[in-house]
Amino acid sequence: MSEDFYRIKRLPPYVIAEVNAMRHAARQAGRDIIDLGMGNPDQPPPPHVIDKLCEVARKPNAHGYSQSKGIPGLRRAQASYYQRRFGVELDPQSEIVVTMGSKEGLASFATAITAPGDVVLAPSPSYPIHTFGFIIAGATIRSVPTTPGEEYWRELDRAMQYTVPRPTMLVVNYPSNPTAEVVDLEFYQRVVDWARENGVWVISDLAYSELYFDGVPTPSIMQAEGAKEVAVEFTSMSKTYSMAGWRMGFAVGNRELIAALTRVKSYLDYGAFTPIQAAACAALNGPQDIIESNRQLYQKRRDVLVESFGRAGWEIPPPAASMFAWAKLPKGFESMGSLEFSKRLIEEADVAVAAGVGYGEEGEGYVRIAMVENEQRIRQAARNIKRFLAKSGG
Ligand SMILES: Cc1ncc(COP(=O)(O)O)c(C=O)c1O
């Protein structure tokens, strides 16, 4: 019997999982590891959202299968969000589908629209589902830069010119995980124009729609003229409302793409637990204070991270958005590689970060630092790292 499974062969071991296992082992051994590795929000959702979950969960009729595409009220709530936040009108019936987190949404979407051998343009470094969702679905990836500079456009054009078969999809993710880079609406307009010209679908991941700093809101690709012709966009309640474990997200945009995702999902799932969907409505329609308070919380942590790590001898470029900083390995450690460096940080400084190589070849030489511990612990991490840098000397 062959264990040479076609898809499994194409999935390298999840690098993040390797570092997570080390962190877990260190904690089991009683060590206090400061975990700046995984992008797992440390705050709870607002109380009224939890109350709604409990209230609906007590109803005897709330426990059956739900609707795969999401209950109508939740799709309407997402339409209202896009209207008030981006000024974009969406039809809740044909242009919105609820997903069980945006990760599931992206994976099901890849299954829905990919034919074996399709070429997908995906950024490197990137959040793994942006490449592996499509690889699992049988696609080939052609990497393009994550940094949205002129080189980005040159690479897109080169990819269209030289790749056979011609690429059919482009993935964009800003604010970027892992690099925290951001774009403006002009960039999205150029992407949409380029995609229309080249006959390419665009998949935008806007998981960090609300975690922007210094008062500069991040745009949606849906604001670009003609976006609905070519684009679909995924958003998530995980970071915006600190609901990561609830598994709640959305896809919006082009009707054909939404219909394809809805169709595949109708075969794969019965939708999220109804009380979760009802509580998600309460989050989207109710008081929005948590968005601003989360933004301030992460911005403050960013400032503490940049300042305290800088004093420890490690310059961290301040991220403009997201919950991550993307930093080059400190001076003298460059040749070690990001995985080895991350392991040494756990072993010798009790600090977990995510190795950049886990986000693709272009991520080598970097680590991603998640701002998911409080300010005091970020300062403690900086003190530990200072000692580690002094001892190891690079
Ligand atoms: C860019 C990006 N997209 C999607 C996700 C997945 O989010 P969700 O919890 O909605 O599945 C994450 C989670 O970290 C992310 O960083």
TrEMBL record:
CDD domains: AAT_like. This is Aminotransferase. Keywords: Aminotransferase, Transferase. Belongs to the class-I pyridoxal-phosphate-dependent aminotransferase family. Its cofactor is pyridoxal 5'-phosphate. Its EC number is 2.6.1.-. PANTHER family: AMINO ACID AMINOTRANSFERASE, GLUTAMATE-PYRUVATE AMINOTRANSFERASE ALAC. It comes from Qipengyuania benthica. GO terms for molecular function: L,L-diaminopimelate aminotransferase activity. It is an enzyme of class 2 (transferase). InterPro entries: Aminotransferase_I/II_large (IPR004839), LL-DAP_aminotransferase (IPR050881), NHTrfase_class1_PyrdxlP-BS (IPR004838), PyrdxlP-dep_Trfase (IPR015424), PyrdxlP-dep_Trfase_major (IPR015421), PyrdxlP-dep_Trfase_small (IPR015422). Residues 32-384 form the Aminotransferase class I/classII large domain. The keyword Transferase applies. It comes from the Bacteria.
